[in-house]
Amino acid sequence: LHAQCSQRLQSPHMDLCHIPATQEKGWYLALMAPNVKGPNYAWLDPSRLYCHAQGLQDCVADLLQPFQGDPIDMVAGIDAMGFILGAAVASVLRKGFLAIRKAGHLCVQTQAQPYIDYSGREKVMEVRTDAISPGLRILLVDQWVETGGTMRAAIELVERLGGVVAGVAAICIENSEGGQWIQQRYKCSHCVPPRLQPRFDHHQ
Questions:
Q1: Could you list the residue range(s) of the whole structural domain that residue 183 is in?
Q2: 30 located within any domain
Q3: What is the pLDDT of residues 162-174, one digit of tens each?
Q4: What pTM does this model have?
Q5: Bridge partners, residue 96, by sequence
Q6: Start and end of every Phosphoribosyltransferase domain (predicted)?
Q7: In terms of Cα–Cα distance, which of 98, 96, 120 is closest to 111?
């Protein structure tokens, strides 16, 4: 890693060491890699952010800041990239982590919820029924909320089992109809500064 740091200006690989002198909230958003593969892919790749130790730590800290002092019993992450961020959040909070999965992967009793994802595809989401007891306060985490369909399905599953949605956290919650629906009804946290929100909403 030290050799990579010393040669970062010449290396074609991502810079895992550089931290800007002035760290405004959301500085790590610049670590995300742009789409180079066309319209069938997301317009940004946040997994590059996860490779940067300080970037990931600051991202998680910013996501949790609005929930300081709030009662949270468990963190739930949404299949698949929400597992990464959700597990990191759960580790910081010292809480358990619940995986909300795409249908067909859980070999235990589940509740299922159909939904339409950001690409317009019909899918089904499942959660195990033995992990959520009535009144359990759950922080829902996903990598990104674009149309809101995936997050709304997760909310439906949690509430159907008697759980309470303590909040919703994502790197970005877009100002779409679905994103607004979620933000109007639940305490939310995301990392995009207000001045950059229009650019993220228009995928610029």
A1: 36-202
A2: no
A3: 999 999 999 999 9
A4: 0.91
A5: 74
A6: 71-190
A7: 98
